[in-house]
Amino acid sequence: MFYQLSPVGNPIRISSKDPAVSLPCSVFEPYQAEYFASGTAALAAAIIAAIRIKNVEQPEVILPAYSCPDLVSAAIFAGAKPVLVDLEPERPWMDLEQLLAHTGPNTVAIIAACLFGISERIALLRAIAEPVGAVIIEDSAQAFPGNENKDIWQGDLVVLSFGRGKPVNLLGGGAVLFRDATFGDALPMPGASLGSGWSNQILLRLKALLFNRIISPRIYWLPQSLPFLHLGETRYHPMLGIDAMDLARLSMLPANIAAYQDNGMETQAALSGMIERMDTSVTGLIDLARVCQLPLGRRLLRYPILVNESLRDRLYQQLHRLGSGPSVMYPTTLPRLPGLEALLAGQGPFPVAEAFAACILTLPTHRLVGSKDLANIRRVLSSD
Q1: pTM of the full structure
Q2: Which of 51, 58, 80, 344 matches a 20 to 30 Å C-alpha distance to 227?
Q3: Domains detected in the chain
């Protein structure tokens, strides 16, 4: 009871430098970056850029039916209609036939979500997007390059998030990356950042210190047991505005990118090898990283597997009781989430995405996972 790994949770490095001279431009090359107050604001800015470039009266944005509700928040704020597409069977990717059927003259952008760190098939999406002049927006909130594999982005615009639970964690902030100046010029100018003085820097450091303490497995069980904190819940929040990223977070960004890239991939490699050796005849386990042919050196934010729907919840509860940091990610498709029923009324059904939501189980890959945790995960997933 008094031990619980967080599903994600890289510690925040507190050190900072002058953002004017220390921003990690080399990491983003050949892209340039524009910084925003959140990943959702960054995505909304990217959609606004796509709308300005295509300039249609009733803009539409295509996104996967199984994804974060922040994608809907960003689209609606930007003034575009979110159009949902079902998934490929047993894959975290959009169904290409449905995508083609839903793409038309009003489509300004296709959002390619990198779920768990597994990239969408950008080349295939581009073949559908280009004939109608749509922009590929690569939602890379759950994916960031390590030293082993830097060339992971292919979108016209790439959206990053530096929020809690993301690869590079600053408890907030986001960015839009672009290669073509046309896209950069079309981005909206963000409003003034909220709190850029010394008091904000001190407050952010205190929050970071507290976060680093809370994600300790010996402490994390406590906030997770408090329902009013809503840890791990998937909730819809309408966007209120697009502001700039504050200087306090900008100053901490280079050190935290370096910390993320310096972290090893031992846990991910251990989970991959463990799952490869398992008898999956009972659980029906599917290793998404393997079947999606994850490139060598590509880092996962969470290790995603599919298991039989009849067993998923039981396996989750067993892993949770052992403090192993499991997650079931988004509980259902976007139209079924509270707050989105009316906004997305008439879209669907999405049976493949529903099945995916009922079978997905993720395992932690961060550096706080120990040998005992791996042994517990192996025992639970190997049991019948």
Answers
A1: 0.94
A2: 344
A3: 266-382 (3.90.1150.10)
